[in-house]
């Protein structure tokens, strides 16, 4: 089992990054590959090594929390690694875990690849298995997932701060927002907005 990799970021695609670890290039599929594009020097990527009959795949995450939630999600019947990756691309671990505890089908069914039956199965299978994610805090609603009524402006504000932390300037982010805002809806999460913005920033 490969639990993490530390190496040089060398290549980026829409679904994965390539990490050079002592001269070996590892292809690592990520929820948001573009989040790694701004890093220079060595980076650490938490991984899940997935083995099946016809392939061995590495899935990578920026945080240990994402890695842990990914492993919980793929235990649910009907959720494979690619769907679990899409869930993490569509919502933060805080939001996904909160939605499970609160049995928020509206939020869960907006995640990529998740229909009503799968959302119900997620709740049934995982609600009692997420103690390591701060169950008491999530259950109280202190980290409420974004609702349909929530304005997209607040989500962009949060995404913008995250992008600034990656080193992007106010001017760069203003230009991206001008292109991005016409397609933004109230259902778009912070992670989704960051991914779209990073794609625009990376491609120019």
Automatic annotation (TrEMBL):
HAMAP family: DNA_HJ_migration_RuvA. The keyword rRNA-binding does not apply. Homotetramer. Forms an RuvA(8)-RuvB(12)-Holliday junction (HJ) complex. HJ DNA is sandwiched between 2 RuvA tetramers; dsDNA enters through RuvA and exits via RuvB. An RuvB hexamer assembles on each DNA strand where it exits the tetramer. Each RuvB hexamer is contacted by two RuvA subunits (via domain III) on 2 adjacent RuvB subunits; this complex drives branch migration. In the full resolvosome a probable DNA-RuvA(4)-RuvB(12)-RuvC(2) complex forms which resolves the HJ. One of its GO terms (biological process) is DNA repair. The keyword DNA repair applies. Has three domains with a flexible linker between the domains II and III and assumes an 'L' shape. Domain III is highly mobile and contacts RuvB. The gene is ruvA. Residues 71-90, 106-125 form the Helix-hairpin-helix DNA-binding motif class domain. It is found in: Cytoplasm. This is Holliday junction branch migration complex subunit RuvA. The RuvA-RuvB-RuvC complex processes Holliday junction (HJ) DNA during genetic recombination and DNA repair, while the RuvA-RuvB complex plays an important role in the rescue of blocked DNA replication forks via replication fork reversal (RFR). RuvA specifically binds to HJ cruciform DNA, conferring on it an open structure. The RuvB hexamer acts as an ATP-dependent pump, pulling dsDNA into and through the RuvAB complex. HJ branch migration allows RuvC to scan DNA until it finds its consensus sequence, where it cleaves and resolves the cruciform DNA. Its main location: cytoplasm. Belongs to the RuvA family. It comes from Paenibacillus xylanivorans. Residues 148-204 are annotated as: Domain III. It comes from the Bacteria. Keywords: ATP-binding, Cytoplasm, DNA damage, DNA recombination, DNA repair, DNA-binding, Helicase, Hydrolase, Nucleotide-binding. One of its GO terms (cellular component) is Holliday junction helicase complex. One of its GO terms (molecular function) is four-way junction helicase activity. InterPro entries: DNA_helicase_Holl-junc_RuvA_I, Hlx-hairpin-Hlx_DNA-bd_motif, NA-bd_OB-fold, RuvA, RuvA_2-like, RuvA_C, RuvA_C_sf.
């Amino acid at each position: 089992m490969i639990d993490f990799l530390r190496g040089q970021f060398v290549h980026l695609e829409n679904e994965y990054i390539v990490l050079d670890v002592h001269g070996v290039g590892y292809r690592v599929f990520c929820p948001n590959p573009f989040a790694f594009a701004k890093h220079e020097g060595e980076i650490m990527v938490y991984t899940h090594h997935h083995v099946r009959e016809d392939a061995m795949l590495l899935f990578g995450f920026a945080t240990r929390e994402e890695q842990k939630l990914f492993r919980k999600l793929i235990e649910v019947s009907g959720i494979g690694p690619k769907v679990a990756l899409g869930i993490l691309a569509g919502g933060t671990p805080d939001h996904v875990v909160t939605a499970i505890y609160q049995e928020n089908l509206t939020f869960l069914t907006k995640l990529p690849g998740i229909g009503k039956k799968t959302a119900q199965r997620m709740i049934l299978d995982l609600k009692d298995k997420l103690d390591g994610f701060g169950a008491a805090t999530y259950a109280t609603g202190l980290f409420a997932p974004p609702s349909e009524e929530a304005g997209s402006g607040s989500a962009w504000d949060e995404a913008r701060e995250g992008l600034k932390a990656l080193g992007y300037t106010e001017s760069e982010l203003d230009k991206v927002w001008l292109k991005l805002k016409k397609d933004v809806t109230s259902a778009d999460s912070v992670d989704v907005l960051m991914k779209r913005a990073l794609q625009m920033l990376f491609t120019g």
